[in-house]
Amino acid sequence: MIVCRKIIEIFKEICKIPHCSFKAEKFKEYLIAYCKKTGAKVVTDDVGNIQVVKGDPKICLQSHYDMVCMGDAPEIELVEEGNILQAKNSSLGADNGIGCAIMLDLLERKDNIELLFTCDEEVGLIGATNLNLELKSKYLLNLDSEEEGDIFVGCAGGVEMLCSKPITYEKVEGDWKTYELETVGFIGGHSGVDADKDIKNAIKEMAYFLHDNSCMISSFKGGEANNSIPKYVKVVVVSKEDMVGNSDIKVTKVDTQPMKYITQSKEIISFLNSMHSGVRSYNKELNIVQRSTNLAIVESKEDSFYVELFPRAMSSEDMDRVKVELISQLEVFGFVYKLEHEFPSWKPNIGDFAKRVQEVSLKHFDKSDFVAIHAGLEAGVIVDKFPDMEAASIGPNIYFPHSIREYVEIDSVLKVSKVIEELINSY
Ligand SMILES: [Zn+2]
């Protein structure tokens, strides 16, 4: 137990060093110095990733070294109560600082080991995407998962689709009434992992409401981020008829009239109603969403109507299929589009390495399942660059990451570190 406890001591040191995303320079220097002291070879690339090699490694352990800073972070005041380690009024950074601590501890004690510390994962997998280092190992073990026993073996790829359609406006003349429409009570969620939770999309509900009412759009703005299920939409419309709201849409009559409305209002309402948002297909074998789309952001601008879509798929073949479907639909409705920040899927693969990870895990945990996630993971991006590598991802129990409620279970950290050590010893 004494050896394991050292991981927690290392983690406590890490908590003293600021390492919010984009501001982790000090921590990077700390990692480099720490690793060099062990006699390992340390190499970095331009974007800020760090590779550490000792001897002839078979497994590359990988963690990201940035954290999501919430509340008082990077000022972190630790609170340890029994098995629970958390921070007072800030995120803890156990995601993924615990992974870093496990790696540093093992580096000191192992002769054949490779480590990869990636930068800026939390702000769009930047380090992994721009990785420019030659990994030596045959296997990649990512330590950024948050449930002990689970072994991640696949993830979804995704791409941002930025779309716009030219529009014109007509002057409001005559007998129109003006209404402000707002969505109320929508909860939002992650567009990937929550895709199958039947969470209502505020843009879709607004479009459905507009379809039932004969009105013209003066302005339309909705959605928060491309990877969030939209929570809030506000639309100003003009109508010749009285409008009444419902439980999702609050309708307020406004006395002042807007100057203009969008000539193509009907087409836009049809487009938004035709655009499916949520699960497109399901993988029953892995019990996971196979393809999804998020109708994420909509905004009427001076001379165009802007729409952001965010499709995801569990394989590149599926992603191609979704893209063709969406592009065809966009073309029919007169939109132009561009694709940005595409990241690859990691097609679920239970190979020899994943099986070995499970074998060792089962010695320490009552159950150990293979899982895939309908969201992007660094391991997916890395194996896309090194197709001969086999990867898996594990980690200790971490709750409420990215929030001031984040905490980690210490005994879970110690058990997961044992699994990793035994795994290294087994090759
Ligand atoms: Zn993480």
Detailed description of the structure:
- The protein is an alpha+beta fold and 427 residues long.
- It folds into two domains: 2-155 and 346-425, Zn peptidases (Aminopeptidase, 3-Layer(aba) Sandwich); 158-343, no CATH class.
- The protein contains ten helices and 25 strands.
- It has helices at 2-15, 25-37, 94-109, 126-129, 202-212, 265-274, 316-332, 352-364, 378-385, 410-425, and strands spanning 41-44, 50-54, 59-64, 78-81, 84-87, 113-118, 139-142, 151-155, 157-166, 169-171, 177-183, 215-222, 233-239, 249-254, 260-262, 278-283, 288-293, 295-300, 304-309, 312-313, 336-343, 370-373, 390-393, 398-399, 407-409.
- A hairpin with a 2-residue loop joins strand 4 (78-81) and strand 5.
- Helix 1 (2-15) packs across helix 10 (410-425).
- The protein is elongated and about 80 Å long.
- Residues 64, 95-96, 121, 144 line the site of zinc ion.
Feature tags:
single chain, 427 residues, alpha+beta, Aminopeptidase, 2 domains, eleven-stranded antiparallel β-sheet, six-stranded mixed β-sheet, 10 helices, binds zinc ion
Write a brief caption for the model.
The protein is of the alpha+beta class and 427 residues long. Helix content is 29%, strand content 30%. The protein has 2 domains: 2-155 and 346-425, Aminopeptidase, CATH 3.40.630.10; 158-343, no CATH class.
Shape: elongated
Mean pLDDT: 95
Number-wise, the strands total: 25
pLDDT < 50 runs, ≥5 residues: none
Name given to the CATH homologous superfamily of the largest domain = Zn peptidases
Strand content: 25-35%
Separate helix tally? 10
* Architecture (CATH level 2) name of the largest domain: 3-Layer(aba) Sandwich
Task: Indicate the radius of gyration in whole angstroms.
Answer: 25 Å
CATH-assigned fold name of the largest domain: Aminopeptidase
Class based on secondary structure composition and strand pairing:
alpha+beta
Helix content: 25-40%
Number of domains: 2
> What's the end-to-end separation, in Å?
23 Å
